[in-house]
Specification:
Elements (H helix, E strand, L loop, with lengths): L6 H17 L16 H6 L5 H11 L18 E5 H6 L6 H8 L3 H13 L1 H5 L4 E3 L6 E4 L6 E8 L4 E7 L3 E13 L3 E6 L2 E6 L4 E6 L3 E4 L7 E3 L2 E7 L5 E6 L11 E7 L5 E8 L3 E6 L13 E5 L13 H7 L17 H7 L3 H24 L2 E3 L4 E10 L2 E8 L2 H9 L22 E3 L2
Parallel strand pairs: 1-2
Antiparallel strand pairs: 3-4, 4-5, 5-6, 6-7, 6-8, 7-10, 8-9, 9-12, 10-11, 12-13, 13-14, 14-15, 15-16, 16-17, 18-21, 19-20
Helix pairs in contact: 5-6, 9-10
């Protein structure tokens, strides 16, 4: 937590020293999301870890301080949620009704309000402090039966981990190449989104591109784990030049500013047209404004989105839709055997069997390593099935990104096998198998 000089700075320094002294770990900072310095030892002991787990994990992790740990660390299932990163990408579809409103909207600036609100909703899912499983190379996730959307995601690269996804219905086309860079800081990790996200609204054919803020995960080992995403989220209409710039407030002293988002919709001349304000974990509102960014007289602040009702005391803080993402209710008929739902480790964790989840995770990881050794021995390279690597390189604030493009083959596959009904499959009857397709090519 940032603190000013003088009194506040000395309090933060004292809090850090007190925790480090009591626990015997130099260089670790425990950040209380509510602020304050009282009961530092009690705060540090909070969280999901047992003391012996914290000790052993810290011994393993301390050598990675300063490193990118995206794909180099084997983590215990204790910190995982029963969902893969591919499934987490699909959670954004929960509020896709906002894209229908954006597509049908005649006002180009209100269109940006709807679209920006839709992208903000992803941060509600990101507030969950459980880590999703890293997808196996070639793993997929399919989703149908929600607002006419067909969604397909695929793990297209293992080192570094990269995923690609495509979603579409009568109102929009959504494409993303996802890649992150991390920096491990001891008791926290900085996450930099190198991905490229584009949204096409079909009625007018406008294309929107998103640049999200970075994220910081606090108290990984000691204390209550929590997430903050301070910085600007920029959504640009590449067709018209309109833009939304929203500032995610950092969590300040005594929790001030946590979750708060404020900003404006600008026209192509960079004049503010609509102000937006709210909290990314609760609701967002908007109001027309003048050139100084002040609300126009006679207008009211109107709510554009509110978080959906969630089950009470849900262990993983899932919404009802997040549970559907894991279920076969959203699966197409003839589900691909590479689908995330079929992973034995994910399924065991969902059923609460941590021991089996851990052993199954190790088995899958070893299968992945064995597949890589076989592929390399044969002089072959992995070729994604549903996405093609392009020659395009996208520049992001945190590094360059190779772009994968949806190749349309999945649509043809679904047309051939049908996708109207779920298959009602029992996970015990289908073996998870992302290696079945022989999607490799001889290296020239």
């Amino acid at each position: 937590m940032a603190g000013g000089g003088g009194f506040f700075s000395s309090l933060v320094s004292n809090f850090k020293s007190q925790v480090n002294f009591l626990l015997g770990y130099e260089g670790l900072e425990v950040i209380n999301p509510e602020g304050g310095t009282d009961d530092a030892e009690v705060e540090a002991q909070k969280g999901r870890w047992k003391q012996e787990d914290r000790d052993s994990h810290w011994k393993m992790m301390q050598k990675y301080i300063g490193a990118d740990i995206t794909s180099m660390v084997t983590l215990p299932v204790l910190i995982f949620e029963p969902m893969t990163m591919l499934q987490k990408m699909a959670e954004l579809m929960e509020y896709s009704h906002l894209l229908k409103l954006a597509d049908e909207c005649e006002d180009p600036h209100m269109r940006m309000v709807y679209a920006a609100s839709w992208f903000i909703l992803n941060y509600y899912a990101l507030q969950r402090t459980w880590k999703p499983f890293n997808p196996i190379l070639g793993e997929t996730y399919e989703m149908v039966n929600h607002n006419g959307i067909t969604f397909i995601a695929e793990q297209v690269c293992h080192h570094p981990p990269m995923s690609a996804a495509h979603a579409e219905n009568e109102h929009f086309v959504y494409d993303i190449t996802s890649k992150v860079k991390t920096k491990f800081l001891g008791n926290s990790v900085d996450v930099y989104p190198l991905g490229r996200t584009r949204l096409k609204l079909k009625k007018d054919g406008v294309i929107l591109e998103l640049v999200p803020p970075p994220t910081k995960v606090n108290n990984l080992i000691f204390g209550r784990t929590w997430v903050d995403s301070p910085g600007d989220m920029v959504l640009t209409n590449l067709t018209t030049g309109d833009k939304v710039v929203l500032y995610f407030q950092p969590c300040g002293w005594f929790g001030a500013g946590r979750y708060e988002v404020d900003g404006y919709v600008y026209n192509a001349d960079e004049e503010p047209k609509i102000l937006m304000t709210g909290k990314w974990n609760t609701a967002m509102s908007y109001q027309p404004c003048d050139l100084d960014g002040e609300p126009l007289p006679g207008t009211d602040l109107k709510e554009v989105w509110r978080v959906a009702e969630a089950p009470a005391n849900d262990k993983f803080q899932y919404t009802y839709f997040a549970h559907k993402v894991n279920s076969f209710d959203t699966a197409p008929t003839n589900l691909l055997a590479s689908d995330s739902r079929l992973r034995s480790d994910r399924y065991a964790l969902e059923k609460g069997d941590l021991s089996k989840a851990g052993s199954e995770k190790s088995i899958l990881e070893e299968k992945q390593r064995a597949e890589k050794r076989t592929r390399e021995a044969k002089g072959q390279k992995f070729i994604p099935r549903w996405f093609d690597m392009t020659e395009e390189i996208s520049t992001t604030p945190w590094g360059d990104l190779e772009i994968y493009e949806y190749n349309g083959k999945y649509s043809k596959h679904r047309d051939a096998v049908g996708n109207a009904d779920t298959n009602g499959a029992d996970v015990t009857e289908i073996e998870f198998n992302p290696w079945q397709y022989g999607n490799v090519a001889e290296t020239e």
